[in-house]
Write a structure and sequence with these properties.
single chain; about 425 residues; alpha/beta; 7-stranded mixed β-sheet; 4-stranded antiparallel β-sheet; 15 strands; about 15% strand; binds pyridoxal-5'-phosphate
Length: about 425
């Protein structure tokens, strides 16, 4: 049996412990939802105030050059590249995940249409995050392609001579199950298809090696594990072997080779810059940089490898404590136990009351979230930058109390909010 003292001892020996001080977290909150919205970096309010008051207020339009505004998508892209196994100059921070997915899937379909027009099927997972499927459905309709949705174990068998693109999310948002990126990418390529990865629940959460896997395209989210703030810019990566081949469809002036030449015709910029569209949200970019810097602060301590080790230790501990201390309450485990198959979250299932249990936990300051399904899911994200082993103990203790006292049956925990 694990004790509270064991958890405290592990915190005392944790080399990443001090990184918690990089964040402003409310008193009395155990935040297990960094997979949905990362917390506020302590540096962000002052940095954003400086961008507003000095760069915008005093610098005015001069700040596009003097404050480095114009290069922000690339500068932030280079920082993201360090977290996902990409090279400098291969990533841009821009737009939203949904929009970036539209751009890269469209470019991938153009590539396939030129090289192998008989390939007209996009394969994805039925349990992929819906926006990814909606974007794919709409593009397929426009291009006369077909979207084929399969279960994870059916992916390899579904790949064939008609497959244009395999488009997957690396870590499943509901279950936390993680694909083996290198193996799946190899299978897609062996079948002659292109591989797109959505890293929304991977970037900043698990080690990712896009170059090593030889993937073709990737997108990811700025406001989850990258701590960029609500609605933060997302990112796009294209393998350099493809970057200069096709226009992406949102061919705006920021992706032009010479935006300030103001020519009437479009000439795409070399490389990843062509994946930009229009003027970027500089204040949001500024906040995202603060978020990225919290992750890069782990570099001297072993970087993503060290963060991943601690994340696995936290999720292992959470699973073990739930099983030791919350048995007999009808909880199941939706997240794979094998480390290689698990992201940085743990999802519990329960036939009844999952929403209300999450609400009762939130009232106690343990913030996770709920995802509807068969069965319903209680989702807990574990971010090694600011969570410790004692936090895990306390979270499970609250869960135990909510279940034992049937606190979740109270009416105030059974009213549905708009955002779950
Ligand atoms: C969070 C998430 C998104 C979010 O897309 P937005 O365009 O930022 O709303 C997209 N895809 C996946 C897989 C996600 O987990």
């Amino acid at each position: 049996m694990t004790t509270l003292q064991d958890c405290r001892a592990r915190d005392a020996q944790d080399p990443l412990r001090a990184l918690r001080d990089l964040f402003t977290l409310p008193q009395g909150v155990i935040y297990l939802d960094g997979n949905s919205l990362g917390p506020l970096p302590k540096s962000a309010p002052d940095r954003i105030a400086r961008a507003v008051q000095e760069e915008w207020g005093q610098g005015l339009i001069r700040s596009w050059n003097e404050a480095g505004w114009f290069e922000l998508p690339q500068r932030l892209g280079d920082k993201i590249a360090m977290l996902v196994g990409a090279g400098a100059g291969e990533v841009v921070a821009t737009d939203s995940t949904s929009i970036n997915l539209f751009k890269v899937l469209s470019a991938a379909l153009s590539m396939v249409a030129a090289d192998a027009p008989e390939r007209r099927v996009v394969i994805s997972e039925r349990s992929n995050f819906p926006t990814d499927l909606y974007i794919a459905e709409s593009l397929c309709r426009e291009r006369g392609c077909k979207l084929q949705l399969v279960e994870p174990h059916e992916i390899a068998g579904a790949l064939g001579a008609d497959t244009a693109v395999l488009m997957l999310t690396h870590v499943n948002y509901r279950t936390g199950a993680m694909h083996d990126m290198a193996t799946v990418t190899r299978r897609a390529h062996e079948a002659g298809a292109l591989m797109i990865w959505d890293l929304a629940h991977s970037a900043g959460a698990v080690e990712v090696d896009l170059r090593g896997a030889g993937a073709d395209f990737a997108v990811g989210c700025g406001y989850k594990y990258l701590n960029g703030g609500p609605g933060a810019p997302a990112f796009a990566w294209v393998h350099p072997r493809h970057a200069d081949r096709f226009w992406q469809p949102l061919a705006g002036w920021w992706g032009h080779a010479a935006p300030f030449a103001f020519t009437p015709d479009y000439q795409p910029a070399k490389g990843i810059a062509r994946y930009l569209c229009g003027t970027q949200p500089i204040l949001s970019m500024t906040a995202l940089e603060c978020g990225l810097d919290t992750l890069l602060a782990a570099q001297p301590h072993g970087g993503m490898a060290a963060l991943r080790r601690k994340s696995l230790a936290l999720t292992d501990l959470f699973i073990a404590l739930v099983e030791e201390r919350c048995g007999g309450h009808g909880l199941g485990l939706a997240t794979p136990r094998a480390h290689a198959e698990r992201g940085s979250q743990v999802c519990l299932t329960r036939d009844e009351g999952a929403y209300a249990i999450v609400q009762a936990l939130i009232a106690r300051g343990v913030i996770g979230d709920y995802r509807k399904g068969q069965p319903d899911i209680l989702r807990f994200g574990f971010t090694p930058l600011y969570l410790g082993f004692e936090d895990v103990w306390n979270a499970v203790e609250h869960l135990r109390q909510v279940l034992e006292a049937q606190e979740w049956r109270r009416p105030e925990f059974n009213r549905q909010h708009a955002v779950t």
